Amino acid sequence: MNLEILSSDSSSMSWFRRNRWLTLAVVVGLGVLGYFGFRPKRATQPSARAVPVTIAVARKGDLPVRFTAMGTVTALNMVTVKSRVDGQLVRVAFQEGQFVQEGQLLAEIDPRPFQVQLMQAEGQQAKDQASFDNASADLRRLQTLAQQGIISVQQMEAQKTAVAQYEAALKADRAQVESAKLNLTYSRIVAPIAGQAGLRQVEPGNMVRASDANGLVVIAPMRPISVLFTLPSDKVSQVLEARRKTPKLPVEALDRDLKTSLGQGSVAAMDNQVDAATGTVRLKALFANDGAAPLFPNQFVNVRMQVDTLKDALLVPTEAVQQGAQGPYVYVVKEDQTVEMRGVEIRATDGDLTALSSGVKPGEKVVTEGIEKLRPGVKVALPKADPAKSKP
Predict the structure, then answer these.
(1) Distances from the Cα of 222 to the Cαs of 66, 102, 201, 216, 365, in angstroms?
(2) What is the pLDDT of residue 185?
(3) CA Rg value for the chain
(4) Which domains does the chain have, with CATH numbers?
(5) Among 99, 155, 232, 301, which is most buried by a count of CB atoms within 10 Å?
(6) pLDDT, tens only, 83-119
(7) Nearest-CA neighbor of 226 among 275, 291, 298?
(8) Under 8 Å CB-to-CB from 160, ≥6 apart: which residues?
(9) Please, which pLDDT band fits residue 291 given cuts at 50, 70 and 90?
């Protein structure tokens, strides 16, 4: 009996050894069937939400072509007022920041030394004038005696020489008198030009000299005033063409943020060469500077110059145009509320508006906000307002 059981077990084991790969396949199949048969079913995924966006409608319109550059405000002929004589400053006749007129008294230097010099020069002139008159009278007498043969011609010629010497001395005296008068005039310092006075550099009581570098005050004409700015050399041809059509191209001065206008002007001059170091050309614009917030010399401003106007151009908001690996593109909202990415060609940009040459048709809706969440074919949720009223 025991032998029969042992024999049966041995035969079973040998069968499993012979068919071990078949057994393994059956076990794996039963495991997979059990996993998929008894795994709890997942809940159905909800459909993706529509992405909320803001849109604008592409339209036809005019777009100004303007160049923007950094500029520096410069006075037309800023002058540092200096004393032309040495002396003690006894009076200042202007207020700091005051607008002064040409010839207006600004300061006065002690005039007494120059008055003394004038008196000395006039005294010397009177003395030499008397000597000249006496020598001239002697010459007339000697000429009469020489005609009568009483004196020699040499004596008369010597007297002529003396008269000529006194005459030359009188000329020198007159020059000294005029120099003293000029110094006395220079003791009163007047404004050489009209403009706004700055902060004074010297207080009354101090000694001033003609060699002082800082001077007394700086006067800067404020109306009109100029702005110097530069443009890249590749824009020179456009500027020249625009100036042929409009000699005084309009120019606008703006603040640092390009939002607040500081004044309106026009191009007055353009340099005759391109700076080889920077590849730019300099231009000068004139501004009336009569606004509530005037421009000041050495102030930095943004300059915007209009050189052309694109008529009946296709306009979209600048924020709708994105840059990708293939170039600029926009997202256009189709009739089924899905978006399509289209490549566009930019014609010109001016602030918040961009003119396109291709890619969008008038009346089509372009996405302006929410672009970062979009992909081609994504459904979007449009604003409740009527999109037909949206403007770029």
Answers:
(1) 26, 14, 20, 19, 49
(2) 96
(3) 48
(4) 52-63+311-389 (2.40.420.20), 66-76+222-309 (2.40.30.170), 79-219 (2.40.50.100)
(5) 301
(6) 999 999 999 999 999 999 999 999 999 999 999 999 9
(7) 298
(8) 139
(9) confident
